[in-house]
Amino acid sequence: MDTGKRQHLQDIYSTDQTVRDDFTPQVSSEMMEERKREIRRHQFISFVLGMVVLVLSVSLVWVVVREYMEIHSMAPSPTPITQDYIPRYSLKSEAQWVLDFTRSYGDPEWKGEGDRPFSSEWVLKAAYNLINAQQADSLGKYTEAAGYYEDVLEILPDIEGVKVPLGMAYFKLEHFDKALALLENAPEADLTPEVLNNLGAACIEAKAYDRAESYLDQAIEMKPAYAEAQKNLGVLYKEQKKDEEAIMAFERYIDLRPADLDTQHNFALYLTKLGHWEQAAELLHSLTEEIKDVPVLFFLLAQVETHNNNPEKAIEALKRGIQLSDPNAALAYMDVSEFEQLRDSDEFQIMIRSLEQNKK
């Protein structure tokens, strides 16, 4: 074979020494170590950069939180003491001047000699207290309202239109003697049905029953569908032991306020005390159609139906009451004397045994 051709073929099948050396065990091991070191360097750099980013993020969050806390911990700007419960927007523009004064401005105490002067300053003091009283009253702050109304009367004792709202504030605070002293001398023009009803209620509390009846009758005469006056009239007759009149008044009230289920319950109890079992049963059946989750109503109905000699209805009511009660409470309800005539029946005994087992 030609020498040149043989050399050419030898070049084709030969391998470069540097490439061939890469695959020797020693060189391959060194390259693997170098690559591992390179990977570790990259991992270290990534870790350091990640930690830097994390520290910067935490620092930024801390700065934001600290600024937020400093802003909210700053002392609020002082507000006049008169704005404690009077929103400025709730006052008419011509009345907002009162918010520019401290409470001491309306002080009714006169430190001079003789009578308090009737001057523009004292008229403004009275107006200041009156505006504050009306706003407090409208917000349901009756103690504050009463205090301001009292200051108005201290400054201008003969002023009109103050005694009635003061009396109403006393009534809402349950200071019935004070309310009665003011309201009973109120001008006739100020005696609205609401005022008369409250006068009647105050008289009931004071046990001035004749005056209470007069006021409540006047309120109902002025406003025949006045439910609250009918209810107070029922309470009055109940206190006076005028049971038939009380029943009629409560029935009129329930007709006007059928959604007042609490009063219906109390009325049913009142009927049972009077021994009006059939009327009580009718009321309780109606009531338990509206209220289906109060066990005491069903146990009361069971007692009433027992008195009406309706054992089937009594047992049915008992079962419903038991379903709504825990065993101990149910056993206590069923231990009353009214159920003596049911106690020997099979159904009653089954209920007792079931309750005793569940109790264990």
From TrEMBL:
InterPro entries, alphabetically?
A: CellSynth/LPSAsmb/PSIAsmb, TPR-like_helical_dom_sf, TPR_rpt
Q: Give the matching PROSITE patterns.
A: TPR (PS50005)
Q: Which SUPFAM superfamilies match?
A: TPR-like
Record SMART domains: TPR
List membrane-spanning regions. Answer: 44-65
Q: Does the keyword Repeat apply?
A: yes
Keyword annotations for this protein, in alphabetical order, are: Membrane, Repeat, TPR repeat, Transmembrane, Transmembrane helix
Q: Is the keyword Transmembrane assigned to this protein?
A: yes
In this chain the TPR repeats are located at 193-226, 227-260
The protein's matches in Pfam families, at most eight in alphabetical order, are given as: TPR_12, TPR_16, TPR_8
Record protein name field: Uncharacterized protein
Q: What organism does the UniProt record list as the source? A: Pontiella sulfatireligans
